[in-house]
Amino acid sequence: PDCSRLILLSFPQCAGEENWVDSRTIYVGHREPPPGAEAYIPQRYPDNRIVSSKYTFWNFIPKNLFEQFRRVANFYFLIIFLVQLIIDTPTSPVTSGLPLFFVITVTAIKQGYEDWLRHKADNAMNQCPVHFIQHGKLVRKQSRKLRVGDIVMVKEDETFPCDLIFLSSNRGDGTCHVTTASLDGESSHKTHYAVQDTKGFHTEEDIGGLHATIESGASGSLETDFMPLGSENLLLRGATLKNTEKIFGVAIYTGMETKMALNYQSKSQKRSAVEKSMNAFLIVYLCILISKALINTVLKYVWQSEPFRDEPWYNQKTESERQRNLFLRAFTDFLAFMVLFNYIIPVSMYVTVEMQKFLGSYFITWDEDMFDEETGEGPLVNTSDLNEELGQVEYIFTDKTGTLTENNMEFKECCIEGHVYVPHVICNGQVLPESSGIDMIDSSPSVNGREREELFFRALCLCHTVQVKDNDSVDGPRKSPDGGTSCVYISSSPDEVALVEGVQRLGFTYLRLKDSYMELLNRENHVERYVHLALRWKRQVLCVLPQFIRARVERNAVEGLRTLCVAYKRLIQEEYEGICKLLQAAKVALQDREKKLAEAYEQIEKDLILLGATAVEDRLQEKAADTIEALQKAGIKVWVLTGDKMETAAATCYACKLFRRNTQLLELTTKRIEEQSLHDVLFELSKTVLRHSGSLTRDNFSGLSADMQDYGLIIDGAALSLIMKPREDGSSSNYRELFLEICRSCSAVLCCRMAPLQKAQIVKLIKFSKEHPITLAVGDGANDVSMILEAHVGIGVIGKEGRQAARNSDYAIPKFKHLKKMLLVHGHFYYIRISELVQYFFYKNVCFIFPQFLYQFFCGFSQQTLYDTAYLTLYNISFTSLPILLYSLMEQHIGIDVLKRDPTLYRDVAKNALLRWRVFIYWTLLGLFDALVFFFGAYFMFENTTVTSNGQIFGNWTFGTLVFTVMVFTVTLKLALDTHYWTWINHFVIWGSLLFYVVFSLLWGGVIWPFLNYQRMYYVFIQMLSSGPAWLAIVLLVTISLLPDVLKKVLCRQLWPTATERVQNGCAQPRDRDSEFTPLASLQSPGYQSTCPSAAWYSSRSQQVTLAAWKGKVSVEPPPALSGSRHHCSSSPSHSCPGSRVQLLV
């Protein structure tokens, strides 16, 4: 068979590659070029290997070291280590080299393990078997050996090994069905179409004899032997063949050139506010370090300026040392002091933070409250670097469909010429589940109306992309119709499934698509057959609606239903043939094909006759309203960004309590801008929201007072484009700032008719505003990925619109309701823990190094160390690291149940409250005070005093060991005082660390170690403990050091308590309270209940459902209309049932 030349006109490219054109010529089956072709130059294409790993066996060490030493802290300690090796420094290079080696090794092991997992996944993918067609026979090879031009056979439930041009299938109509769950999570079936001239090749022999050429990026005039191709002929790597026995395709893009590989976009590195604070504090301590070194260097030369102070009689300098350059000597001394004091920079803090984030992230994945039994999904943590950012969120941007709503469509009603049809009978407000048929609001239609009614039902039954599966073994969302047939409807659009099922309950059943004919079963149980015209795209048509249908559509839209109008047009045979020719000419056009198709459809879609309208309900997610209400109480502003129309989106916002009854809605829409200029609308809105005292503050709008006047803003995508568009003078900042000022004054914002990139624009606009708030974006579809990547924290909902959002997010949750616990509990705990970790590390290092600074004043600035080398090395690694790590993993200053009941506690830690400069300065001053107590307490207590039984006094190393012992006990007990949640693990680690220090010191100074050249600490620690005054000094100095912090906590808690401290004072926290470590079984047991006395105040509010009688039938009362006026509803006596309240308005 000779199919001449096939031209691939379009290939969907990844983001950022829109202007890239890949021109290639592919000979199907690697056949020789056809006679008369131009000179054949073989093109080289990559093989089919996928490489997602970062390292290889050979480049892992150099590449990983290069990346790690790009971090300022690691590079700094490397320089210090090299300085210790080069010049004569007071401390051993081991003291800096060992901690640095530990940090580098732990990080390298973690990154190496993660890359090994990527290598493992790549090998599994590259070695999977693939069936090739060679010389008309089926050959099995590994996927990595696949080349461009190979003909591949793929069987049902197999994934496509590369990007293929679909040549043929076992189906007579040349179609196949695929799912892209492994690409974007879409489990719905999508239909693809074989090349028209090759769809008849069904055997290996036919395909093996195919002579054809594919050219991509081709342009030029139309030739008769060219067959244009499009995306409907393209099968992407990673998609799975479904409901089709087998297909044949030719490889056109392989390996790293496939669509899937090109979409491996590197995400921008997100940094948390805590990490930025750490870097700022690090710079301050670096300045302190340099200042200390400079002061000691200057004072050393001032000290040595007097005669003979620089060369005592027992160590006189040589002539060459006297002639040495003064500047060089001063610089060397400066570096030596830098080395001596470098421990003030906590290198071990970075590895501790990494471990805390990595291990702490498991508390989210282990949380059984966030596990969804319906889907069998639990929360996922894709990155642990942003755990603490969950406790700092100020703005939440959420999608609507599938996130706030279930994306589970149900056909509610249809309206035809003034008659309303409901698939179920409603009696006294109750739906009768056993009943089926038609419930008509008005009288039955006339004969002419009956004909239009059936035409309407036939339109719904035929105009869709629904597929029929004859058995239940099908993947993805599916529903079984209510009729007697056992077929299952499948579609890429849940709306279409709902409409087909709804019209089935109204008497018309869609049966199948067979041999280009669509079959349906009418009310008389007669099968009707219609020619299938595969037009395959969606358009929106504007039409004028009759008054009744318009009112019904608006009513349904206000109630949050998705509406669709149905119209038709009668064509005579000549018109039909002309339309077919027009469409065919547009389809085969090589240039401006989309434009010509649009013109053709514009010509067709004229003079349409309206038949009626439908309403489909997308139900609200479980506890979505409670979640949003809690988030608003926590001081978080919630914005809804959706592509839906304004009325539907606003109704959803009312239902989920984003807008409340007293919310005054402000509209910034295209319709209003057409009536007034953008400038006038913005200034009018600005005057409205700022009319009251200033604007609404966080505390105002988050309090959710029923009597408080607040504002809600509605903006559409076109209006946003005008705001973001640069003005004629080249600036757009004025409009943006005015828009931001209006948004800040509104309690909630709804952005409708938003494109995916506009969602990201909104997030970016708020993200980089002058307050620089922490933003969070949550969505469930591929159209939400852009805003998820743009926000500080991105959360994907594992929903029915696919997993693309979950895979590109930082965290993934099964349902929107789980966002409440993730932020108010986990985020709160993460921030509390890591902020204490950071401040504690700087505090204990000030305590550690400041006595060393003071000691230089008593040793002639000779760079003599106060502590032994072993103590210098192990202080941050062993003696004080484990207690703070366990604290940062397990601390709960308030019980989980209290945090969930009182969302306002979230505001206590907002805006990085625990890592502000005021708190940082307090911790630093506390460290300086403790260091002064350690040093001068020991100094004055033993000055000119005999402290041993034999009359000897303490020496240099005994004095340093005493200071070090007091310090270790003080900083450890300080952490114990800060601990609120005690477990046996805390007790074991805190008291075990102190015991380890004592045992180590006894062994280090009590045993002669053969591998040491000298042992200056021999018997020092034992000698110190044998002295009664030393024991007294340890107890007294530890008490004095801890006293100021204890007094400060007591006074502040009594005089200026925070909301958290008031809860701690008023609500005792027993050991068996709800915690991260409480088994789920105990929470469900009847005997388990909260012991907090304020629990009754936080009881859940009952949900109010309002029904209204309309024309003798019961329907849901719509929320307040979309206007600036405030609406009030009066209540009549209500009939109540447990947990809910129903009011009837007549």
TrEMBL record:
Residues 806-1058 form the P-type ATPase C-terminal domain. One of its GO terms (molecular function) is phosphatidylethanolamine flippase activity. Mg(2+) binds at residues 399, 401, 780, 784. The lineage of its organism: Eukaryota, Metazoa, Chordata, Craniata, Vertebrata. It is a multi-pass membrane protein. SUPFAM superfamilies: Calcium ATPase, transduction domain A, Calcium ATPase, transmembrane domain M, HAD-like, Metal cation-transporting ATPase, ATP-binding domain N. This is Phospholipid-transporting ATPase. One of its GO terms (cellular component) is recycling endosome. InterPro entries: ATPase_P-typ_cyto_dom_N, ATPase_P-typ_P_site, ATPase_P-typ_TM_dom_sf, ATPase_P-typ_transduc_dom_A_sf, ATPase_P-type_domA, HAD-like_sf, HAD_sf, P-type_ATPase_IV. It catalyses: ATP + H2O + phospholipidSide 1 = ADP + phosphate + phospholipidSide 2; a 1,2-diacyl-sn-glycero-3-phosphoethanolamine(out) + ATP + H2O = a 1,2-diacyl-sn-glycero-3-phosphoethanolamine(in) + ADP + phosphate + H(+); a 1,2-diacyl-sn-glycero-3-phospho-L-serine(out) + ATP + H2O = a 1,2-diacyl-sn-glycero-3-phospho-L-serine(in) + ADP + phosphate + H(+). The chain crosses the membrane at residues 280-303, 334-353, 840-858, 870-890, 920-942, 954-976, 988-1012, 1018-1043. Belongs to the cation transport ATPase (P-type) (TC 3.A.3) family. Type IV subfamily. It comes from Rhinopithecus roxellana (Golden snub-nosed monkey). It is found in: Cell membrane; Early endosome; Endoplasmic reticulum membrane; Membrane. Residues 1119-1140 are annotated as: Disordered. Residues 42-96 form the P-type ATPase N-terminal domain. Its cofactor is Mg(2+). Its EC number is 7.6.2.1. Residues 1130-1140 have a biased composition (Low complexity). Keywords: ATP-binding, Cell membrane, Endoplasmic reticulum, Endosome, Lipid transport, Magnesium, Membrane, Metal-binding, Nucleotide-binding, Phosphoprotein, Translocase, Transmembrane, Transmembrane helix, Transport. The active site is at residue 399. PANTHER family: PHOSPHOLIPID-TRANSPORTING ATPASE IH, PROBABLE PHOSPHOLIPID-TRANSPORTING ATPASE. ATP binds at residues 399-401, 496, 562, 642-644, 753, 759, 783-784. It holds the Pfam family E1-E2_ATPase. Residues 127-230 form the P-type ATPase A domain.
